[in-house]
Amino acid sequence: MKPIVFYGTINLESDILYVQSNKDYYSVDDTFTLKINDSSFGIKSIKEDKKWFKFDKSKRHNGEIYLSIKNNKKEIFNKDNIEIILKEFNPEPYPSITSVGKNYKAGEILSIEGYGGSAKIEIVEVNDKGEVTLAKAHEESSFFVDGYRSFFPEGGSGEGLEVVCEMIDNNKKTVLEKTVVNSFFSDGKILINFEYEIPEFVETGEIKLNRNTITLDKPCPKDLSRGTMCICQKIEYTEKLGIPLVEKGTINSYNLYNRGADIIERQFLELEKRIEKLESRL
């Protein structure tokens, strides 16, 4: 059977292997053999976990943007494939006007953008100085922040207009698939970042991951907490005697060969005893 290759994380003297999270669980069971950093292991049990984490406002660490997750232990690792779920928001229909500007005309269409979204601002009413007294927002694409946000609309014949929009949850969500480049645990928080950064304006959201957790048949002799490549393969056996069938590229092949040789030798010895008993009766 073709080997399954994945990234895994395991601590020194631990028998718990955290398999790289993926969109789907890996098709592995306790009949497989594992090779981890030149050591071979059997599988005692496998657990499938679906985990959700809420993350806080993005933080900068060593000049890079990290998502911060409050947790009592590290549960997200390097190379994990995860889904980031962001809520979408629309600006309220009639934003507050904090600076009326001047020389605007009713009916003009201005634009605002930022926080991942954009909208049109329609000038509904102005006074005789061209100061805006009423404006209406028309959503173009969703924003990814809530609360009250200030904008300086662009376009039109005037200048100096400033509006404040309350961002309203539109019950839609955006899902981003990301691979964790770096992950570490500090002061009760998991910090993670990616090859392509999450925009700094993203303040809250959720992370979803699917993970196989494997209990090995013996502790790991090395500290592989930073992760390592793992090779997992199902071994086929003969139906009657259970002799392992070793193909080219089979992991742990020398142990499997020795196991097969031992089974064959024991069968020969048993057969030899039976022959001797039969011969003694003649």
Quantity of strands, as a count:
17
Tally of individual helices: 1
Distance between the termini: 49 Å
Summarize the helix and strand pattern as letters. EEEEEEEEEEEEEEEEEH
Shape: rod-shaped
Give the integer mean of the pLDDT values.
Answer: 88
> How much helicity do the residues have?
10-25%
List the keywords.
282 residues; mainly beta; Thrombin, subunit H; twelve-stranded antiparallel sheet; three-stranded antiparallel sheet; 1 helix; 55% strand; rod-shaped
Q: What does this entry look like structurally?
A:
There is one protein chain. With 282 residues, the protein is mostly beta strands. The chain has one helix and 17 strands. It has one helix at 253-281; strands spanning 4-10, 16-19, 32-36, 39-61, 64-70, 81-91, 96-102, 109-114, 117-126, 132-141, 147-151, 159-186, 189-194, 205-216, 224-234, 236-237, 244-245. Strands 1, 2, 3, 4, 5, 6, 7, 11, 12, 13, 14 and 15 form a twelve-stranded antiparallel sheet that branches. Strands 8-9-10 form a three-stranded antiparallel sheet, with no helix packed on it. Strands 16-17 form a two-stranded antiparallel ribbon. A hairpin with a 6-residue loop joins β16 and β17 (244-245). The longest helix has 29 residues, at 253-281.
